[in-house]
Structures are given as C-alpha cells and as structure tokens.
Amino acid sequence: MDYSRLVKAYDIRGEVPDQLNTDITRKAGALFIRLTDAPKIVVARDMRSTSPDLADAFADGATAAGADVVMAGLGSTDYLYYASGKLNVPGAMITASHNPAKDNGIKLCRAGAAPIGEDSGLAQIRHWLETDDIPEPANTRGTLTHNNLLGDYSAHLNKLVDLTGIRRLKVVADAGNGMAGHTVPAVLAGLPIDLVAMYFELDGTFPNHEANPLEPKNLVDLQARVRETGADIGLAFDGDADRCFFVDERGQAVPPSAIVGLVATRELAKHPGGTIIHNEITSAAAAEIIREHGGTPVRSRVGHSFMKALMAKHSAIFGGEHSGHYYFRDFWNADTGMLAALHVLAALGEQDLPLSELVASYTRYAASGEINSEVADVPAKLTEIEDVYQQLDGVTTDRLDGLTVTLGAGRWFNLRPSNTEPLLRLNVEAPTDDAVEALRDEVLALVRA
C-alpha cells in the first residue's frame, strides 16, 4: 500500500476499497486517538454509500483505543467543525468532498475545530500506517453514543446572522446531490426565503453533475434555473458543503474574491479595526477594501491549514480564499460555506439593489482564472522567471506561496507549484481583460518555453 497517495496534505482520501477500506479506517481511528490523546471524539459522515461503514470502522478503532465516540450522523464538513467546537473534542469527518463516487476519505481536526494537516499530524499518521505501528487495544473500551446536532448547528448559524428582518428573497440552491441537501433546509427553515431546491436528493453517485462548483460547467444548471425562475440569487455547494459559490440574478457567477470583500465589510462593521486573512490568489481588491473599511489585511498561503493558523495567530475576525472557502472567528476559525451564504443573503436582503449591483463595488479587476502548465523542473522554472522580472524597474517579487510578481498599475501574477504533480498554476490579475490576456500570454510563453 502506497500511503503517500492516501494520506495527503490536508486529509486522507482515496479510492474505496483499493486505497481506503474499513481495515485502514479502523487503524486510522486508533491512530487518531494516539495522536490527540483525546478521551472523547466526535464523528460525522457524508452521503456516500461507503460512508456509513467507514464511519463505523473509524469509531470502532477509536473506541478500541479507549476513547468515547459521539456519532453525530449525516452532516456537512462544517457541521462536523461545529460539533468539534461545541463539544470541544477532536473530530473526524468521513467524506471525499467533491471527488468521484468511487472515492472516500477522512478530514480530521483537534478540539475546537483546530486543523490537522500534513505538518500537524497527518504525516505522523502516515508514518504509523506505513510501519504498521498500530496501538494495542486499551484495557477498557470507550463508549459509543449517538447525538444529532443538526438543530443546534442551524440555531448557531442563525444566531450569528439574523435574516428575520430582510426583504423576501427567492433563492435557488444547488446541492449537487451532496450534503447541502441535508443542511440547507434546516438552516433556512422559517426565514423570509422562497427556496428553490436543486439536486437536494442525497446521492453519492452525483447523477446530475460533479459537486464541484469551482468548475464553471457545474454551475450551468444553477445559472439557467436562476434566470428561469427570476430568482434573486443562486447558491452552489460542493459535495461536503463546506464551500459555497454564488450566482447573481442574471445568472452570472460572482467571483469569490468579491464575496471576501463583501463579507469582510460586514465583519468589520461588527468588529472595527479587525484583522482579515486572505490567500495569495485572492484579488488585490480584497486587501484594498479591507483597508478602506479600517481593517488589517494579512496574506496567507493557499490552503485551509495555513489560513486557520493565521486566523488563530492574529485573532482574525474573518478569512477568505479564491476557492470559495470562508473562515470565521465566530465559528472556531473554521470554514463554513453556509455561514458565508447567510452573510450574502443578509447583505442582499437588507437593501433593494440586485446582487449584480451589490457586488459590483467589490469587483475591481479582471482575472485569468487558474491555468496549469506541466514543467520538467518546477523550482528552476520559478527561479528563471523571477530573474526575468527582477530586472524590470518598479517590479517586486515574493515567495510566500510559489512566486508572486507585482508589476504596478494593478497588474500581478502568481505561479504556484502543485503539491502532487509537476505543474505550475498561473493566476493573473489586471485592470482590464485585455491587460490580463497580454500578461497571461507573456508569462505562459516563459513558463512553457
């Protein structure tokens, strides 16, 4: 078994049963207790057909190791983070997010939803699995209890964002047959919202489209339904519903960077002068807007473990990524697409402008989106390109996350290596589409030379 292909940078994820099975998951449960030394943990799962057996196996390994296990049942990943935060115990979420139906996985966190990534525990778990260093069963087996926290989760979110006084909104939500079909009705129940449900049937085979709204093709059905129904807004969730993407009343996708700016202004209104984390790929407009509203922007590497670490370090009130992950201090620094959705619904419903006009002031630049290029020697290529641009006047470079080159006049680009493949990922931003295309082509010529 090649555990390097199973235990990844942020979670455990692979094909069932060839890479991940109940035996490995049972071992992972025991190793999780060794890692955290926790007397009690909480486990939740998504809707995949293999998730119930894997959840039971993980719990079996954990109880054999002597820990008490709370089985929280079906839920989104942010539901698991809520349970971990509320109960103040480590947690395990059985999910493969937006991966194909044949896959499954485990997302882990410490008590209070603190992240566990490669540098904070996953590498150790991988080593134990590789060496078959599995603990002997404890003298006293832990207990197993069941506790559905969906009502508490919903009440907590609604306490953080009050929608009871907004104007009535028609909202189309596309769950992609993922966990949002379970959580969205609970959270939005009783609010002044006419909900149009799309693909709310829990089905881990994803019969309608991939549950990955980062890919434009997976937004097409939602965009059409928003236009057909005359809805005010569309919401698209990924498979484990920890990410949310937005579509305006015209059926146009709203850039996640604009959502970062919008939610940041709302959080700064509650917490004046607060710090807000944004990742390296987020639009430069986000940092500008944060400063204009009295906040302090702090850049982060891409990825939830880096974002959450900086959230904790700076006691940040909010954090956002270009990939649709949004983090909240009021939610144990964890990412929750549902809470971001409530903020956007509140901002829309508290005034009369349509969503397209509301977000226009948060969208200041054009962007290329992510463009991948295969490169034989990634470090050498980054150094080569950095050397080219360092020769130019008024250009700055940094290596916070890959290579970022800022050229002035609102133009910048980032080249970031893939964690798993010999790829460079290019993101370009500039004031106009023409300027983006020119800079994109210039950089790609160097990357692919």
What does this structure look like?
The protein has 449 residues and is an alpha/beta fold. The protein is 36% helix and 23% strand. The chain is built from 14 helices and 23 strands. Strands 1, 2, 3, 4, 5, 6 and 7 form a seven-stranded mixed sheet that branches. Strands 18, 19, 20, 21, 22 and 23 form a six-stranded antiparallel sheet that branches. Strand 15 (318-320) and strand 16 form a beta hairpin. The longest helix has 15 residues, at 22-36. The protein starts with 11 loop residues before the first strand and ends with a helix. The mean pLDDT is 96.
Relevant terms:
alpha/beta, globular, 6-stranded antiparallel sheet
Task: Give a quick rundown of the structure.
Helix content is 36%, strand content 23%.
Output the structural class.
alpha/beta
* Total helical elements: 14
Q: What is the straight-line distance between the termini?
A: 37 Å
The major sheet is characterized as: 7 strands, mixed
Helix content: 25-40%
Can you lay out the helices and strands and say which pair or pack?
Layout: E1 12-15, H1 22-36, E2 40-45, H2 51-64, E3 68-74, H3 77-87, E4 91-94, E5 103-110, E6 114-115, H4 122-130, E7 144-146, H5 150-160, E8 169-174, H6 180-188, E9 193-198, H7 220-229, E10 233-237, E11 244-247, E12 253-254, H8 256-270, E13 275-279, H9 284-292, E14 296-300, H10 304-314, E15 318-320, E16 326-328, E17 334-335, H11 337-349, H12 355-360, E18 366-367, E19 371-374, H13 378-390, E20 396-398, E21 403-408, E22 411-417, E23 423-430, H14 433-447
Helix pairs in contact: 1-2, 1-4, 5-6, 8-9, 8-11
